[in-house]
Design a protein that fits this description.
Blueprint: E1 5-10, H1 16-25, E2 29-34, H2 39-44, E3 49-52, E4 78-81, H3 83-91, E5 95-111, H4 123-127, E6 136-149, E7 155-159, E8 167-170, E9 175-178, H5 190-201, H6 210-225, E10 230-233, H7 238-251, E11 255-261, H8 269-277, E12 286-291, H9 293-300, H10 306-328, E13 333-335, H11 340-345, E14 372-374, H12 382-391, H13 396-399, H14 419-446, H15 461-469, E15 479-493, E16 496-509, E17 517-518, H16 523-536, E18 540-545
Parallel strand pairs: 1-2, 1-3, 3-4, 4-9, 10-11, 10-13, 11-12, 13-14, 16-18
Antiparallel strand pairs: 5-6, 5-7, 7-8, 8-9, 15-16, 16-17
Bound molecules: xanthosine-5'-monophosphate.
Length: 558
């Protein structure tokens, strides 16, 4: 079956993944490919539409990323964004020039309502504006070069005070070019413009939905696996949990999940994972929990160098996993929780291969006897994985779990790791999470937002997802945790001098985890966390709040 698909051709712009995500929000499946992808391959994918992204070059620079004229002659609608728009003009015989000033930031743009790109945008007033009355909207601009002359057959359908062609089209050829960035939220009606392109101009029916994804995947997994055996390394994180449940629904007891508790998990996390996936839980699968904490502590004893710690944790994971796999014997498939951004960032999808030093624990075991890898989430973005999780009935606390690094608390304890230090971090972190959750609940009450009880029992997973999205105070971090500095300092407790550890509280706001800002959690919440940690966690006499953004810091400590 050919899935309805739009292709994003990546010219190295910073928003490539965002474009694809926005298209998927229109219920149209979308994949990212490098501009180097041969035209024949693109043709063979039978795309319903093609979108060209922004990029860091100028079209007239030597060696700049480019595309062939034939791309525009496939009979498939093409939308060029920013660099993609300029490239479309350049390749088709228009002209692109360097402006004196960069046009950057929110910009007032006048648009022509008769363009299919702007159909229905701006409400009735804008749509009915009479002659000489141009409706306007705010868009996000970021360009030096501009389209000084359009290619033949094109007409301008939007402009700004500085930019004569903010958008243009050749409707009969199905070609559209937009100088601004509809994919970023700063562009008013950005979503609507992309919707008009994929659903209107490309005529996509919008069949990409998580319920049908889950259904088709379950069917596909059943067909592929037959009566084979499948092995899955379950970490308890969102991706591996969703992958495991998907497989369990498809093939039940043919699936075995191995959960390695390396003793570097958050407080009670091991038991929580077992409660969901173990024999008492709702799913049909074989669950093996390996309690390997002491083994890990032994290996890590006295090791202080961060990379060495990471390496030991990763290698030990593989070893433990392999030992378990050996007991199970040969399997047909090994499950990986790879998601689409991993595919793109490893350079397979788009152009901008991000150099990422960290991988999930362990990578691939070498000595496990399996024939093939299954990656059921390979096509999904993170928010889609969560939606699929809700669709599968996975508990919300698991689905909305914040990211947790593979090496776990091992990289949140600066210096060498001991069981005692792990206990300190676990206890401090549990208090921190509890207090943040409490403060968020109180905020909801004061803002008149009901808690989970505000959700109708018959709400669909999609409605549940949207409900949870809009339910947090503005200061709510995207990731937060307690860490242990390796510093001890002098304090007083009662009448006694203490010489104890300092706990570091970290909380960041971030969209992509590549850059991040420290979060301004209300002072009284931090004070409460501090006082509880000092009173309740033995061995701590100081609490420090980390204000560092990324860069120059990283989110984790090591
Ligand atoms: P950093 O510390 O690099 O973290 O700013 C960025 C994001 O990645 C997570 N992280 C990891 N995730 N294995 C993982 O699976 C790792 O080794 C790892 N190191 C960092 C981190 O929690 C944050 O969300």
């Amino acid at each position: 079956m050919d899935r309805e698909k739009v292709i994003v051709i990546d010219f190295g712009g910073q928003y490539n993944q965002l474009v694809a995500r926005r298209v998927r929000e229109c219920n149209v499946y979308c994949e990212i490919y490098s501009y180097r992808t041969p035209l024949d391959e693109i043709k063979a994918m039978k795309p319903a539409g093609i979108i060209l992204t922004g990029g860091p070059n100028s079209v007239y620079e030597e060696g700049a990323a480019t595309c062939s004229r034939e791309l525009f002659e496939l009979g498939v609608p093409v939308l060029g964004l920013c660099y993609g728009a300029q490239l479309m003009m350049h390749v088709l015989g228009g002209e692109v020039k360097r402006a004196d000033d960069r046009e950057y930031g929110k910009t007032k743009t006048y648009y022509d309502v008769s363009s299919l790109l702007f159909k229905g945008i701006g409400g009735a007033d804008a749509q009915n504006a009479g002659d000489g009355m141009e409706p306007s909207m705010t868009v996000w601009m970021s360009h030096f070069d501009y389209i000084s002359r359009m290619a033949e057959g094109f007409v301008a359908v939007a402009h700004t005070d500085n930019c004569p062609v903010a958008a243009c089209e050749n409707r009969s050829a199905g070609l559209y070019a937009i100088q601004f960035h509809p994919e970023v939220l700063h562009t008013e009606y950005g979503k609507e413009i992309l919707y008009n392109f994929v659903r209107g101009i490309c005529n996509c029916a919008g069949t990409w939905r998580m319920d049908s994804f889950v259904e088709t995947q379950i069917k596909a997994i059943r067909e592929k696996v037959g009566d084979g055996k499948v092995l899955c390394a379950l970490s308890g994180g969102v991706d591996s949990s969703v992958a495991a449940v998907l497989l369990s629904k498809a093939i039940g007891k043919q699936l075995t999940c191995v959960f390695v508790d390396h003793g570097l998990l958050r407080k009670n996390e091991g038991d929580e994972v077992e409660a969901v996936f173990g024999p008492e839980g709702p799913y049909e699968l074989n669950f093996i929990r390996v309690n390997a904490a002491s083994r890990y502590y032994e290996k890590l004893s006295g090791v202080t160098e961060p990379e060495k710690k990471r390496k030991i944790i990763g290698e030990e994971f593989i070893r433990v996993f392999e030992e378990e796999a050996k007991k199970i014997g040969a399997v047909d498939y090994l499950v990986q929780g790879t998601i689409y951004p991993d595919v793109v960032e490893s350079g397979l999808g788009g152009e901008s291969a991000v150099i990422k030093s960290h991988h999930n624990v362990g990578g691939l075991p070498e000595h496990v006897d399996f024939k093939e890898i299954i990656e059921p989430l390979r096509d999904l973005f993170k928010d889609e994985v969560r939606r699929a999780g809700l669709e599968l009935g996975i508990p919300e606390y698991l689905v909305f779990r914040q990211p947790f690094p593979g090496p776990g608390l091992g990289i949140r304890i600066i210096g060498d790791i001991t069981g005692e230090k792990v206990r300190i971090v676990q206890d401090a972190d549990a208090i921190y999470r509890e207090e943040i959750a409490k403060a968020a609940e109180e905020w909801k009450k004061s803002a008149g937002i009901a808690g989970a009880e505000g959700l109708a029992p018959e709400a669909t997973p999609q409605q549940r997802y949207e409900y949870y999205q809009g339910q947090n105070p503005e200061w709510m971090p995207d990731q937060y945790f307690a860490a242990l500095s390796n510093m001890r300092s002098v304090g007083v407790m009662g009448d006694e001098r203490t010489y104890d550890y300092a706990v570091v509280l970290r909380a960041v706001r971030t969209v992509d985890f590549m850059t991040a800002e420290a979060c301004d959690i209300p002072w009284e919440v931090l004070q409460k966390v501090m006082s509880r940690i000092i009173n309740e966690v033995r061995g701590v006499n100081r609490v420090i709040y980390d204000l560092t953004s990324k860069p120059p810091g990283t989110i984790e400590m090591e």
